[in-house]
Design a protein that fits this description.
Structural class: alpha/beta
CATH architecture of the largest domain: 3-Layer(aba) Sandwich
Distance between the termini: 19 Å
Order of helices and strands: EHEHEEHEHHEEH
Number of domains: 2
Strand content: 5-15%
Helix content: 25-40%
Length: about 160
């Protein structure tokens, strides 16, 4: 499933990307452009804008009322039945894989040799991390540190409520 989040849902977009969902987000996007991209790329619109959902012919959208990004995430996961908890990290059955997309630009991450990451990551991280991924679009490096464990814990809390 592919999403496009309106300008009010940046934190939600980042979480969806961390979960592996193809989620476009532009902080200053105008409604007509958001609608055009959604239509052209067959994306579901995630929005908090009650005026936007009144556009004639709009079908693929979810109107969110919560301010809290974790409540928003829970609502999205429930609304589209996206995550049975036992498959949250499996990547099976066409499901997205956790930590497979850049949280900043939505591009799929690529595994890179450890040596390639050396000039761009702290020395301690280089010495202790087992592997690295890099975004081919924006160049950001990713590695398994404490964040994945904390994010997985938060995700399990969210999934247990579904």
């Amino acid at each position: 499933m592919k999403f496009i989040a309106d300008a009010m849902l940046g934190r939600l977009a980042r979480w969806l990307r961390l979960l592996g969902f193809d989620t476009l987000y532009f902080p200053d996007i105008e409604d007509h452009r958001l609608l055009r991209i959604a239509r052209e790329e067959d994306r579901t619109i995630l929005t908090r804008d009650t005026r936007l959902v009144k556009v004639r012919g709009l079908k693929n959208f979810l109107l969110l009322h919560d301010n809290d990004p974790f409540e928003q995430l829970t609502r999205v996961l429930k609304a589209f039945s996206l995550y049975p908890p036992e498959q949250a990290d499996s990547g099976k059955e066409g499901r997205p894989r956790l930590y497979s997309r850049c949280s900043l630009c939505n591009t799929l991450l690529e595994d890179v040799p450890k040596e390639q990451a050396k000039p761009s990551v702290p020395e301690y991280v280089y010495q202790t991390a087992g592997g690295f991924k890099q975004c081919p679009q924006c160049g950001k490096f990713y590695w398994k540190g404490t964040h994945p464990a904390l994010l997985k814990k938060k995700l399990n809390e969210i999934l247990s409520g579904l």
